[in-house]
Amino acid sequence: MGVFHFRQFDIDDRDCGMKICSDSVTFGAWFLPRHEEARSLLDIGAGSGLLSLMAAQCMPLAEITGIEIDEAAATAARHNFAASPWAERLQIENSDFSLFCPVSSVDIIISNPPFFTTGLLASDSQRAAARHEATLTTAALFAFARRHLAPDGHLGLILPADRADDTIFEAELAGLKLRRQCSVIPREGKAPVRALFDFSPADGVYSMESLVIRNSDGKPTDRYTSLVQSFYTKIS
Asked: Using CB atoms within 10 A of its CB, is residue 7 exposed (0-12), middle (13-18) or buried (19+)?
């Protein structure tokens, strides 16, 4: 689509199969600030690098690695990282995440994984790989997180709301505990469309919440505005 200007960084996603969308910003704004003291983070399926850059903004001590299987998207992320204020803390690996092995356990893993598990693949091969759960499954992601997360680390995910129960069950089978969950409602009175998750190998307090993006009149809610205002230059 082009170059997107955020408060502290820019994103050029013109060569990426999966374009910038508000889902990633909402997820990053909900998940990342809670873990601002993290020192290491992996962004699986990094695309053009949006979540990695949001993490760099939120986590001043973190060394951040994006893992992206698509070469064009990885190249875009590399350029976006280099142009950011945090270039020295950001790197991109053009690789299948299942083949990547960090040298030590990591504090945080995040992913905005493929959404579609059934149906026809998109006609554009890049978009198909980015959107269809053919190359990055939640089961594989949970297994990877269980191997590489620190004992008190966290895994953050965003998925369609109708997959929430299955996702929680799948995580439990992998030995990950649900610590926080948020149902994202696009407009007051509507059903949730996305579910945000914070899993950890460690036990702890569980919390469940809802986030309404827009009031019935179509204007952004105060809570949503408060959540994303440190990233967006304009909220509409």
From this structure: exposed
